[in-house]
Amino acid sequence: MLEDQPIDCFIGNNIKRVEDDKLLNGKGQFGSDTPFKPDALHAVVLRSEHASGKIKRIDFSKAKKLKGVHSVITGKDFSKISNPLLSVIRTEFKTWCCTVDEVHYVGEPIAIILATSRYIGEDALQLIDVEYSVNQPVVSIKEAINTKTKFVHKKNHKSNVVSDRNFEYGKPNKFFTNSHKIVEIEIEYPRNSCTPLEGFVVHSEYDKASGIFDVKSNFQGPFSLHSVLSRALKVEEGKLRLISFEDSGGSFGIKQAIMPMIILTCLASKLSNKQVIWVEDRLEHLTAASSASGRLTKLRASINEKGLIEALDYDQIDDVGAYPRAPEPASLYRMHGNLSGAYKVKNIRCRNRVVLTNKTPSGLNRGFGGPQHYFALERLVHQISVELNLNVLDVIKVNLLEKKQFPYKSPSGALIDSGDFQKLVKKVVKSSTYKNILKKKSDAIKNGKIYGIGYSAIIEPSISNMGYVTTALPYKDREKTGHKGGALASTSVSIGPTGSVYVTCDSLPQGQGHKTILSQIVADVFGIKINDVFVNTTHDTHKDAWSIAAGNYSSRFAGAVAGSAFNAANNLKKKLKKIAASQLNCKSENILFDKEKVYDKKNSDNYLNFKRLVGIPHWSPGNLPEKLNPSLRETVFWGNEKLRPPNEKDEINGSLAYGFVFDVCGIEIDPITSKLKIDEYVTGHDAGKIINPLLANGQIYGAYAHAVGASLLEEFKYNDNGSFLSGSFQDYHLPSTYEVNEPEIIHIETPSPFTPLGSKGLGEGNCMSTPVAIANAFSDALKIKNVKLPLTNTKVHQYLNLNKNEKKPKHINENINFKNHPINGSGEFELNIDQNELWEKIFDFKNLKTIIPGCKSLKEITKNNLNGIIQLSIGPVKGEYSFNVSIKKIKQNKSFEISGNGHGELGNGTGIAKIEIINKNKKSFLAYSYGAKVDGKIMIVGNRLINSSVKILVNQIFQSFTLNKSSYETFLKKLFKLFGIKI
User: Fold this and answer.
1) Strands (DSSP E) found in 126-280
2) What is the dihedral of CA 469, 473, 479, 483, to 10 degrees?
3) CA distance linking residue 767 with residue 393, whole number of Å
4) Using CA atoms, how far apart are residues 572 and 369, in angstroms rounded to an integer?
5) For the segment 309-343, what is each residue's pLDDT rounded down to a tens digit?
6) Whether pLDDT at 875 is above 80
7) Using omega within 30 degrees of 0 as the cis cutoff, is the peptide bond preceding 771 cis?
8) Which site among 157, 373, 433, 876 is 20 to 30 Å from 276 CA-CA?
9) pLDDT for 821 beyond 90
């Protein structure tokens, strides 16, 4: 632990980040800043526009003829020189990085274009023609479980369930059979993601002479995936060299998903004999990178009259997308060792299922499995208080683990190292923020306002046991493949001849402040200035120490990586003490390091300057004490024996250290605007020894901001055809300073006995605790049981009106089924022309051509059946469509219905509408209601822009009927210009 430290030590103090000057002055070296060879080729990915289907034909002849295009490489080409990806779960189908003959999600790679520039590659992309035989996709967990006809992988698979395991710990049946009360809840946690500033960047080059792939990328680990990569490339480990960029632009876990593109660019380099560059754009990142897994959980609790939880019964189903891509199903099993959370529950039953859907494969995301797990458990605790009419704080307290129980062995195997949960709860409830929340709710009730309070109490795991994911396999299968468990962290510390200290670790920074933290620790050990410590934040698998556990994930930095740096520096310090003792004629145990001096603690005048001392092994190795190695370089691999493989009972200690987080949230809901406002928030943390409180709070603020986004705004949405509806920041909303208030942060420190510095991770806790705290506050405010995130204005409005019978306008037609047309709307316009004149205008098809924006031709094929061509540009996408329209159910001067469909190079669409001429208050109105569905490439512009564009088109077409000829053309042009629609 922290022994023999300088009097004025850096550890535990607020030290500003040493990284920031460079970054804030624009001197960062991100992937896109890294130079590449002049003759390098740029990769552009052809991606599937459909969620499910067979590739019938790919014609890239036009693309190949474009000047600057080197080649087009298909999935079949790649499959001939590579292996499919390994996965934890064995499946009957193969997982390729580039699909061969079927597509399984929108955005799945079909081919790679190599060109002399990205611009040429993008142009060539538009020249490729792909013909599909489209299938109906599986887009929800319940559909994946219940369907008997739709399967994500149709060739070799007869079910969408790829893993189904049952677990039992203690005697849950006994308590459920004789329970005072059983409380249950069902929740569905949505897919969402973290969005780094810089997307994926890969520079890959194959050296034919040596057979080595050199890869520079912002891959963050875990480096267990190095083995997956090398196997897919059909090379031994040493022939895949991974090098990190100096700066990453953030990750939050998701850059683990860069793995398939590393493989594809390596293979492309091998085929082209050129360096290959790929830079992901934002559309690709949102559509095809990865996301957190969606989860459906049914959770029951047997409780006594005081709300004490006697037993839990989980039924968890994780949606991992189209492939269980490594390390999945890790998100379902990361929390498995601690299914009981922060509570002293002894009896647990659990069923875990993993299902496939026609969505992007899931992967690492900040919190990884924690948000899904705690959303169910903490919503259940809230519901217990409701059904027993107890104070939720009392229910939490009666169930919390007590200080005297640590280290605590949970039923499913976690060894929770330390903590004082009750102390932290007391500190939070004594805070001014908590008192304000209670007062504001009391005042709100008196004034008829809507206000709710939500609580959450969670355990935050850190330093993952690499073997926890194998709990997904039966014990016999684990025996066959070899039991896996444990975790290692490595750091190298060396000292130069004039006293500069150099540090390299196996964790790649993603904003945590690696340089600052490691400088603090090492400077403290040697009693020197922080400025004399130089931390290298790049990593090279051919030069630097690493293991399969290397990388930046699972909040392992403070506990494991910083701990290994501490140990490495102390090992060097022991050697330096022996050298100093020989020079100062004293015992080594009496040597102290402080203020750049090394001295005898019994005589402070007997000293050497640190720089003079460390120069001796460099300049005079012959003067060292006998048998003392002159090397001033130390590499430490640190691990802990507490992390073992899952045992025969499926018990697993999934992490080494466990922090505690206790949150209270106060929200206010405006019944008029349906706006949910986080009024006040207090979050308490026990993360062991805090190395740098300033940076620790920064991590908490960041996790809190991510969690607010997940709670109020962020969701990856798909329509019934599997089209991705969140492909831009117009559709995937991120929180701003308006939504993210500043929480009060409270710390206590209960050091971990299992880590070198006593530190635990804290960068993910609020991603787990905040969404459910907000949901509980929402449930408290509206007295509702089923709360589904994100709580957008629209969803809040729906909850507010659950018990209200809102009257629909008379012109909304009940007899038209819009179920399969998700874009729908209605409207009415007062007529400025006579009804008869309007009717003639509508059925004058020559006139109709001038009214429809972008209409190039319109012909009546048979009576009231039309065919035409329309050209539109929406946002960055421009295309031509042919369409067919049928007019039916015509009632002269009263009403008619329209149905139609269109298709073109950018996709297809269908639509239906009913138009009525109605009279009210001695005035005439044209009323309409419509439904539309759009699929294909055009969906890349995003659901919001598509919806708004369709509504504008429809509204203005109908309004143009009601205007005089002299006014409607000007009106149309102004409105379309406003919304960026070119005609």
Assistant:
1) 129-134, 161-169, 181-189, 201-207, 212-217, 240-244, 276-279
2) 0
3) 21
4) 39
5) 999 999 999 999 999 999 999 999 999 999 999 99
6) no
7) no
8) 876
9) no
Q: Which amino acid is at 85?
A: L
Structure tokens at 274: 């050129």
CA distance 873 to 983: 7
Q: Which residues contact 470 (CB under 8 A, 6 or more apart)?
A: 88, 478, 481, 483, 484, 645, 646
- What pLDDT, on a 0 to 100 scale, did the predictor assign at position 962? 56
Gap between the Cα atoms of 968 and 974, Å rounded: 10
**976 CB neighbour count, 10 Å cutoff:** 19
Query: Side chain identity at 316, as an amino acid letter?
Result: Q
Find out whether 296 and 188 touch, Cβ atoms under 8 Å: yes
Q: Which tokens in the block code for residue 149?
A: 């006809």
CB 837 within 8 A of CB 822: no
Q: Which two tokens stand for residue 300?
A: 């029951």
User: pLDDT for 423-477, tens place per residue?
Assistant: 999 999 999 999 999 999 999 999 999 999 999 999 999 999 999 999 999 999 9
- SS3 string of 740-759? CCCCEEEEECCCCCCCCCCE
- The answer to whether 497 and 615 are in contact (CB under 8 A) is yes
> Does an H or E element contain 228, and which?
helix 225-232
Domain boundaries, the chain: 20-25+488-638, 34-135+194-289, 161-192+291-470+644-648+656-799, 823-982
Q: Count of alpha carbons within 13 Å of 979, Cβ hemisphere only?
A: 21
Amino acid code (one letter) for 394? D
Cis peptide before 327 (omega within 30 of 0): yes
Q: What is the value of pTM for the model shown?
A: 0.86
Sequential DSSP letters for 620-668: -GGGSPTT-----EEEEEE--TT-----TT-----EEEEEEEEEEEEEE
Number of CB atoms found within 10 A of residue 595's CB: 13
Tokens coding 636: 């430490």
Structure tokens at 915: 């138009």
* Whole-angstrom distance, CA of residue 913 vs CA of residue 825: 10
In angstroms, the CA 734 to CA 726 distance is 12
- Nearest Cα residue to 242 out of 215, 270, 210, 266: 215
Q: Over the stretch 67-104, which tens digit does the pLDDT of each residue have?
A: 999 999 999 999 999 999 999 998 989 999 999 999 99
- Say whether 823-982 and 34-135+194-289 share the same fold: no
Structure tokens at 824: 């729908």
The CATH fold of domain 34-135+194-289 = Aldehyde Oxidoreductase; domain 3 (3.90.1170)
Q: How far is it, in rounded angstroms, from Cα 952 to Cα 949?
A: 5
Report the pLDDT value the prediction gives residue 900, as an integer from 0 to 100.
80
Q: CA-CA distance, 371 to 193, in Å (whole number)? A: 12
